[in-house]
Amino acid sequence: MPATSESSSSSRSCSISGIHSRRSRAPPGSRRRRPPGRTRSPRSRPSTASPNSVEESMRRLSAGLLCLVWAACARKADLVISGGMVWTGLSTGAPRPGNVAVAGGKILAIEDDAGIARYVGPHTERIRANGGLVMPGFTDGHTHFVDGGFQLASVDLRNAATPAEFVRRIKQYAATLRPGEWILGGDWDHTLWPGQPLPRHEWIDSVTPDNPVFVNRLDGHEALANAAALRAAGVTKDTPTPPGGEILRDSRTGEPLGIFKDRALDVIGRAMPEPSPERRDSALARALAYAASLGVTATAHMSASWADLASYRRLDRAGRLTLRAALYLPLDDWRTVADSVRRAGASDPWLKIGGLKGFMDGSAGSRTAYFFEPYSDSAGYRGLLQHPEADMRRWIGNADSAGLQIAVHAIGDRANAILLSIYDSVTQVHGPRDRRFRIEHAQHLRPEDIPSFGRLGVIASMQPYHAIDDGRWVERRIGPVRIKTTYAFRTLFDTGARLAFGSDWTVAPLDPILGVYAAVTRRTLDGKNPGGWIPEQKISVGEALRAYTSGNAYATFDEATRGTLAPGYDADVVVLDRNLFAMAPDSLDQARVRYTIAGGKVVYRR
Length: 606
Known about the structure:
By secondary structure, this protein is α/β, with parallel strands linked by helices. It has 19 helices and 24 strands. The strands form four sheets. Strands 3, 4, 5, 6, 7, 22, 23 and 24 form an eight-stranded mixed beta sheet that branches. A hairpin with a 4-residue loop joins β1 and β2. α14 (464-470) packs across α17 (512-521).
């Protein structure tokens, strides 16, 4: 193999199989390794005309021979995945048979059976994919990751199908606690119950006399407090309702019923004890293990707290992170975030401050998403903004001036339209730069607003599972016209928007395979839409996978290091037990993860 000349340094190097690795910061505790496919050579004099042409020729010949010898001893892989259908993520097309070699935490090569042999050494670990899909690790573009870890150890109310079952599960869980311990999480869904009544604190007071309870609806935008929690927070009928929130009250007495929505959640939240660092670290560790079992190798952790960031940093220093995390901290704390990024830098290979997360409105399930027209089942009511529009414009403008990425929750069509307008005006005032504004959820859009995503370069950070869940009931909320551009995956793609898919865990299951199934089939959870709910908004398997891989890498400014399988990229890989591209769409949810590899290490195997 001939030597190549680098004119900038007049040095010579050689490459193997055309693999050129990017330099990247090594994970904590590891040594920087020489990039695959490159070898250093001594500096030589510039190649200028010389009477001693024989000496120059010999020098060239020696360099060439050195490269040939080095090539014959090509770097051996730490890990080789063979016998799979490899989908690199570079396009939405189908995968091809192939093998993946990994070394030093990076992709070393992607080769056919003959080509991969040179990378296999005596210490190379072998994984046989047996025809399953080999693809970039899934990135979940929107989680509440540490909260998910806490929920894994808390009461599970998600599929409690009746009020009686709801009460029974809380009673059973309370029996395992000491007096005074809070019961949190839950993720209940009253739309499963006959008549869909919201719970009241009287339902659970008698079974939780000694334990404050504050269990949230699965969308996280309303929660039920029991009498003990109301006492702990000092809530009475005279407690004012905060702007951007709602406290449900008895229509006769004015006494709180126990339901708190959006900004009113803080009324109870202020009374809740902060978990110890040890408990938070344990929750994060649980979440990491669970994510690895589902093939998730990176996440954007939304609405993270400073305590969450400290927990990630502790596990990062201990070498215990098994996924890459970008944390988005509160928008109204933009100044502190900007100072922190300036002082400490934004990232290392496993952890970074991604930017800021804000809220425009609430959710359709809690009737707090903000619409232009009233809810179809609530005359005259349009939802609510969590913050005045003027505050949002000021915070977003200031954060953008500080160079921070901004991600804002918007669900109702009016909330999305206002946010797009804010992003547009900030861009015009501050001038062009690579901002990558994000709208989290972007669920209900007016047709005329959809092209603005592509025009403004706004990322639509969406959660496909919400579509097949909400599709059971949302038409009753907003009517048959507005649902036509609800979860408008196809139209957003076709108008040039970039999509980044996630789960919103714990609001929805973390499993990205369920998200792919939802985006491709749009079959609602009640089984009433076998052909797909709003079927014209379906997308292909390849499009859904790109939104879960390279789309998310782009959304966090990481497209140069992860999101695809290519030499020099981070070796974050998932091996499935079957090829999603060859499956019937309605069976996609049956696929399972066999191996998860993060940074070149196997972190899960089944």
